[in-house]
């Protein structure tokens, strides 16, 4: 019998087993969804940006953007706001970037071959995600 603040609840052992099973099942489902897909080298093992095998969807030339780092997937990317909008941004995860450009907030101009993003990441509405192999990059 459980007593708390004058409340009397009686749970038999059969019901208790059901509650324990339900709680354990919910905990299992919760923790299975919290895993990550990174291997020991910080590379996404789900094919985050498989640039060697990716088919080019389109090419970009002389786009201006800002270099940033995504901590969730441990990847550098370039964000490019869509001109004339307030909430549309293209995110280009980088297949190749020189160390000199790995600086949070660095403004650059770049060109490259973009492919559709097929990785696993928390996505924000209004954002479009791509992978890109850079062919040119310069400071702004």
Core attributes:
two-stranded antiparallel sheet
Describe the protein in words.
The chain is mostly beta strands. It is built from 1 helix and 7 strands, in the order E-E-H-E-E-E-E-E. The chain has one helix at residues 13-32, and strands at 2-4, 7-9, 58-70, 75-81, 89-94, 107-116, 127-139. A 5-stranded mixed β-barrel has the order 3-4-5-7-6. A two-stranded antiparallel sheet has the order 1-2. The protein starts with a strand and ends with a strand. The model is unreliable at 32-47 (pLDDT under 50).
- Global structural class: mainly beta
Q: Could you tell me the strand content as a percent range?
A: 35-45%
What does the largest sheet look like?
Answer: 5 strands, mixed, barrel
Query: So what's the overall shape?
Result: elongated
Order of helices and strands: EEHEEEEE
Can you count the beta strands?
7
Secondary structure: helix percent = 10-25%
């Amino acid at each position: 019998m459980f007593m708390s603040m004058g409340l009397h609840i009686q749970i038999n052992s059969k019901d208790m087993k059901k509650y324990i099973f339900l709680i354990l099942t919910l905990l299992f489902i919760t923790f299975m969804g919290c895993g990550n897909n990174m291997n020991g080298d910080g590379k996404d093992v789900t094919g985050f940006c498989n640039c060697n095998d990716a088919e080019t969807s389109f090419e970009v030339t002389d786009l201006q953007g800002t270099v940033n780092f995504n901590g969730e997937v441990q990847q550098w990317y370039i964000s490019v706001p869509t001109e004339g909008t307030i909430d549309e941004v293209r995110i280009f995860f980088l297949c190749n970037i020189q160390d000199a450009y790995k600086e949070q907030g660095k403004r650059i101009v770049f060109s490259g071959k973009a492919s559709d993003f097929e990785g696993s990441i928390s996505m924000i509405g209004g954002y479009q995600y791509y992978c890109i192999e850079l062919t040119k990059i310069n400071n702004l």
